[in-house]
Amino acid sequence: MSLGHEQLDVYRLSIDYVAWVFGQASNLTGTHRHARDQWLRASQSIPLNIADGNGKSTEPDRRKYFEIARGSALECAAIQDVLRVSDALNDKEHQHRKGHLDRIAAMLSKLGGRGYSVAEDSGIYGANRIDPDPDSDIDTDCPENSLT
Length: 148
Hints:
Structural class: mainly alpha
Number of helices: 4
CATH superfamily: 23S rRNA-intervening sequence
Radius of gyration: 19 Å
Strand content: under 5%
CATH class: Mainly Alpha
Largest sheet: none
CATH architecture: Up-down Bundle
Shape: elongated
Distance between the termini: 67 Å
Number of strands: 0
């Protein structure tokens, strides 16, 4: 007998990733211990939220948990970047596992009903336009944002 979430490819892929993280984490000590602890938490969050979300009966509830799992996958990718630049991970394995995380994030985006892209199109922002506040408009009162 298997539970519903155990039949999802994304769940099985995330469990495989957690197993790899646990193996890698055992080698991280000293200055890497904070990244190790965060990495362990974030990696476990992926399958746990997939299972939780898959058990929800309404789409908004399911979407919420799949989005949390997706965020944890992206967090794991950033932690891997930190560990890579500090020479705690080799580049080949780092890139290979980031490919897994990208696949997990794409699958979770699909399950959550959200479009997914690997990178933003920077052309939509315009050249040299700076918008220091978090709203969605360009502030034209800043000299560097004038359209003339």
